[in-house]
Design a protein that fits this description.
With 184 residues, this protein is mainly α. The protein has helices spanning 29-46, 51-83, 87-92, 95-117, 121-126, 140-149, 167-172, and strands at residues 128-132, 174-178.
Length: 184
Amino acid sequence: MSLQEGLICNISGQTADFEESCPHFKENAQAKKEIAALEEYNAFVKNSAGTGKRFANFILDWIFIYIFIVVLIFSLGLIMEIVAPGTIYTISNNKVFIYTLVYFSYLLYYVTLEATTGRTIGKFITGTKVVTMDRNHPGFTIILLRTICRFIPFEPFSFLSDSKTGWHDRLSKTRVVVVKKEKK
């Protein structure tokens, strides 16, 4: 900066001829739109559920998934014993069948609940909900992708990154937000 030329207006690049306003200022609609989008995104991120609620969701959902698996296995065992007595012992020793049943139960729990309501039982308890980046209810395919991403090895450790979101959030472009309580 030269003291003879004076201040240079950052916006116009010309010598400043103002004290309180810049007559050469031309509003950049694109920049204004980007700033508004950034402010909206920052408000969205601020409303995102914290790691404490996310961890509570994780623990609660695992408890309910185990209960769901026990009920499902008991029901299937009962039905199989009625339909084909004795086959339960053969199937119960088949590890592939057991693992498939467990993964299917896990998939069924998350996809059914999150695709229909945006919430699992854990999310109902903690007052959170899954939404897309534009704050809409995610569709079936997004929830299916989100749930499949949960099977990535070490995925729970992805919350330790700077973004504080899991891979299942980032890859499906979803977030878990706090649901505002309705006023009575």
